[in-house]
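Anyone? Bumping this.
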Amino acid sequence: MSKLALSDDILMQVDKPARYIGNELNMIKKNPADVDIRFAMCFPDVYEIGMSHLGIQILYEMYNRREDVYCERVYSPWPDLHNIMKEQRIPLFALETQDPVKDFDFVGITLQYEMCYTNILQILDLSQIPIWQKDRTDNDPLIICGGPCTYNPEPVADFVDLFYIGEGEVSYHELFDLYKQMKQSGHYTRADFLREASKVPGIYVPSLYEVTYKDDGTLEEMKPIYEDVPKTVKRQVLVQMDEGAYPTKPLVPFVRATQDRVVLEIQRGCIRGCRFCQAGMVYRPNREKSLELLKSYAKEMLSSTGHEEISLSSLSSSDYSCLPELVNFLIDECCGDGVNISLPSLRIDAFSLDVMSKVQDIRKSSLTFAPEAGSQRLRNVINKGLTKEDILHGAGMAFEGGWQKVKLYFMLGLPTETEEDMRAIPELANEIAVRYYEIPKEQRNGKCQITMSTSFFVPKPFTPFQWAPMYEKGEYLRRAKIVNETMKAQLNHKSLRYNWHEADVTVLEGLLARGDRKVAQAIYNAYEDGCIFDAWSDYFSMEKWENAMDKAGVSLDFYAYRQRDLDEVFPWDFIDVGVRKDFLKKEWERATQDQVVTPNCRMQCSGCGAAGFKGGVCFEGKN
Amino acid sequence: MKVRIKFAKSGVMKYVGHLDIMRYFQKAIRRSGLPIKYSEGFNPHQIMSFAAPLGVGITSEGEYLDIELKEEIPCKDILERLQATMVEGMDIRKVSYLPEKAQNAMSSLAAASYFLTYKHPEQFVYSLDELQKAKEAFYDNAKEISVIKKTKKGERELNLKPLIYDFDITKTEDKISFYLYVSTGSTDNIKPEFVLSHFFASMGHMVEDNGFFIHRIDMYTRDENGYVSLGDVGYEK
């Protein structure tokens, strides 16, 4: 029997013990004595969430293809086990070998959302690794972070030794080779390695930069403390998507994961340029995988996992140029024998409705639109191309095809939003309902159900809205109330439903998203006071966070509610993400002053800067 | 064509619960490419049924699931194709075809046998001899073993005596183990740890939850000749 880090008594006490045993199908087994580098890849949330993440599976595959590296996995122990491990001082372990993480060479932590920041501290604390980067010694593992939140790494910079900015496929080999070479030379020190690593493209070593602040608290300057450390860190991009490693034998967990299906990544980046969307900016340029490769992956992955569902992953699947061919292939060649296709939110048109009617039960499934804003004016401000006519036309076709349920997603608190824009949300939903009831009674199936959901807008780094202020909790709720009241006054209000997100978490997310190094102390205080799993409403405590911020002298006024000056130096300005700051500035002005849309990348290049990566949509048809 | 698959669950796999084991087999069968039958309807599912759930923390060498195949495949091939896609700790032990009229494993289940050992031997200071004597009083010579069983509807009084078919205590290499052969199934489902906790209670010793390592040896159905292993009902093809 394989060894386990936890005793039988503990495993029998905790919820879902299978989260902690490893041994999943397609797990990589290696003898740690045979490798030079032991890497613990961590997703700082519960197992079922972490196991659903594609990025980790890609890196797990890529690292383990190297004979000299053994990459294992770590997830956040659920609070029941967390308490036991703290109490009994059991060190956090990796699932594959069940060995303590503190004995590894690297601990890689993916930063997928801001609300997992206290869980990073949990991972370090349970691993018995010093939480602050300055307290670590040559014997501690190197903590390296990647993922979307590294586009502003500063709030967690003091906890992390290195950040990898960009797509992991590109520079990890160079980093591993450097580490191995320094270790084998016998002269390894943490400081020497970090200094050398800072020269590897995409690697950011926060301890090698000095930050000074102005009297008003904003950044004065951020500069390297040594001359040979680069001033800017360039985001790494896999230009030829077909060349990247892909997990054709992905891990299949025993516990049902959130994504219990084959995930086929069809492209990266997005041509649309919605002005609130960070992913739409920081993953430019849009790059597609080839149809033939995707077809072979689909077949191989279904047979290597036995999953009963396959799903496409991308920011906007409708923009994938071979989508009809791909979807028809999946329906013809992979469906049947109990295998389903789960379609991502496609743009609603004749093609998608036809496909959906083949793969879903129309009466149970719903159509999804993400207009993001209720009025056309505000949709222009956010650069969301979708028009009311598109929505009504799509919904009309769907209703005639037998659908009855529609889901609509919006944001409240967008820049320039007025009461008129808020009221436009339920008014749009009502018009959709009207369109439904235009169908003769005998041809429809009773009532329709239009569900509106609003989240509160959070300004993110590297978006045209990075200068925008947020609102206080009360103001968000006032806006939600206006939507709710307006809904009740609609003719078809009985067919409408409305739900909105919690405001507390949103405001905090905003603070963490655009924070600087001073925010680290607040995160530390929150963790010390017991905050973990902040993304889970059962565990989130705004009161604890407020105390943590007070004690650290970190205020929402400064980080969240403040309108940033156009000339302000941002904590994340040192990253060269591809898209230039002057382009974002121009977009911010087009949004708030001219209120005009910018064409998508396929219609016309707007010169954002991403063409510098020399690939993808920027060069489509120009070979 | 009804096929019965006997499998063993050991090692770390004992921490994987029954629902997850069901999903595990659904995927394993798809990976094996065996021509399993699906139900009709918009969301077809595999025709598959398990004899009895195995609790979390329990190992077994006698688990069963029944499936239906669309075409006949030699038992040996089925076994090999499934075994090739198992994880460590899951092993396919036997495959057989069932007579068309055979009841499925779940409804024909009548008994199960177990081995139990102490998780914390230091808490049990009894010699084999003391245990044997206590067992004579508790089981061998008892006319009735009256216990209270908690059910969904509340509590009911139950006589355990006729539901325990065999009870034995042995010692090998300083290790005491308990063998229990008990009624199992939809009517009188007796858990072995339930019997043991009453046995120790008869000695004045209250056992805490999860006090034993439990290993299921086999499951049985009953026919005119007595109890038959679920694995011996069918025939090989």
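Late reply, but here is one note on the structure posted above: Residues 261-344+576-623 of chain A form a domain with the Transcription Regulator spoIIAA fold (CATH 3.30.750.210).
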